[in-house]
Automatic annotation (TrEMBL):
This is Diaminopimelate epimerase. It catalyses: (2S,6S)-2,6-diaminopimelate = meso-2,6-diaminopimelate. Homodimer. It is an enzyme of class 5 (isomerase). Pathway: Amino-acid biosynthesis; L-lysine biosynthesis via DAP pathway; DL-2,6-diaminopimelate from LL-2,6-diaminopimelate: step 1/1. The active site is at C88 (proton donor), C88, C231 (proton acceptor). Substrate binds at N15, N79, G89, N90, N165, N198, E222, R223, G232, T233. It comes from Agromyces ramosus. GO terms for molecular function: diaminopimelate epimerase activity. Catalyzes the stereoinversion of LL-2,6-diaminopimelate (L,L-DAP) to meso-diaminopimelate (meso-DAP), a precursor of L-lysine and an essential component of the bacterial peptidoglycan. The record marks H167, E222 as: Could be important to modulate the pK values of the two catalytic cysteine residues. Belongs to the diaminopimelate epimerase family. The lineage of its organism: Bacteria, Bacillati, Actinomycetota, Actinomycetes, Micrococcales.
Length: 293
């Protein structure tokens, strides 16, 4: 039996999503339906699907509410291949913009909203130019696997970082090496993490730090979606990795240039340890109705 799905297409620095609202949690799409929606030739086309569900109507949402009772909305995030992810840094800004647009939440400029995610509750603040999401604490995780990618002559060491979802960051020598990467092919991690990882390739700008802000370029191969124009959690993991490699004197403010635009990353101290925040644009592009089988 087919049914109509009312959706909104949104994007943040070119990382694009199909969003739909399902407050009661009775429209869970199958992985096959998600992949069909995200297909760029036969579907709407997107890097992921985001369902807005009231937290009280999901098991993962119950944990979010236990952590913060004000997290009434849950960002149910799916990659383009129909797998789930714990977190999406660009997606959470676009999701917040979608909640406001649909009249599902209110957020005055300067105000913050708590959003439930599989990685825990995240706070998103409305700024003058977009949204800033506090992605919480982070940790080195996943070791230092070797990374092989098409058009890299030799394997390079990566650094595993968890920012709610898993990342491996690889430093490249220069812009030529970054631009020459062929990310149509899945890079190989050795050892391969059981849950997979998003893989970011980074190059420092020259000079690395300008006016107290660290500057890097990044390209990404997202777990479950392939190469994308941007990855918010990937930008955060990349800034954290470069700061780690650069040592004590490295700044806590970073500007990350991705193929789809620029993201801002800031590390700051909070009660439970160091947090990392991500700022950038969020745009709702068009609405539509999809007939799904
Ligand atoms: N594009 C996202 C990350 C989406 C999830 C990722 N592919 C994963 O599987 O963890 C972002 O902006 O952070």
């Amino acid at each position: 039996m087919s049914f109509d799905l009312r959706f909104t297409k949104g994007q943040g620095t070119g990382n694009d999503f199909v969003l739909f609202s399902d407050p009661e949690g009775d429209t869970e799409l199958t992985p096959t339906q998600i992949a069909a929606v995200c297909d760029r030739r036969f579907g709407v086309g997107a890097d992921g699907v985001i369902r807005a569900v009231r937290s009280r109507n999901l098991d993962d949402g119950a944990s979010a509410l236990a952590e913060d009772p004000s997290a009434v909305w849950f960002m149910d995030y799916w990659n383009a291949d129909g797998t789930v992810s714990e977190m999406c840094g660009n997606g959470i800004r676009v999701f917040t913009s979608y909640l406001l647009d649909q009249g599902l939440a209110e957020l005055p400029p300067g105000g913050s909203i708590a959003i439930g995610t599989r990685a825990g509750v995240r706070s998103v603040r409305r700024t003058a130019t977009g949204f800033q999401a506090d992605l919480g604490t982070w940790r080195l995780d996943g070791g230092e696997p070797l990374v092989r990618a098409k058009s890299l002559p030799v394997a390079r060491p990566g650094l595993g970082i968890d920012v709610g979802n898993p990342h491996v960051v690889v430093a490249l020598a220069d812009d030529g090496e970054l631009d020459g990467l062929d990310l149509a092919y899945q890079p190989i991690l050795d050892p391969a993490p059981e849950a997979g990882a998003n893989i970011e390739f980074v190059v420092p700008a020259e000079p690395l730090v300008e006016d107290g802000v660290g500057r890097i370029r990044m390209r990404v191969h997202e777990r479950g979606s392939g190469e994308t124009l941007s990855c918010g959690t990937g930008a955060v993991a990349s800034a954290l990795a470069v700061r780690y490699w650069a040592g004590e004197s490295a700044p806590n403010d970073w500007r990350v240039q991705v193929p789809g635009g620029v993201l801002g990353v800031r590390m700051f101290q909070a009660d439970d340890g160091e947090h990392v925040a991500l700022a950038g644009p969020a745009e709702l592009v068009f609405d539509g109705v999809l007939s799904l089988a």
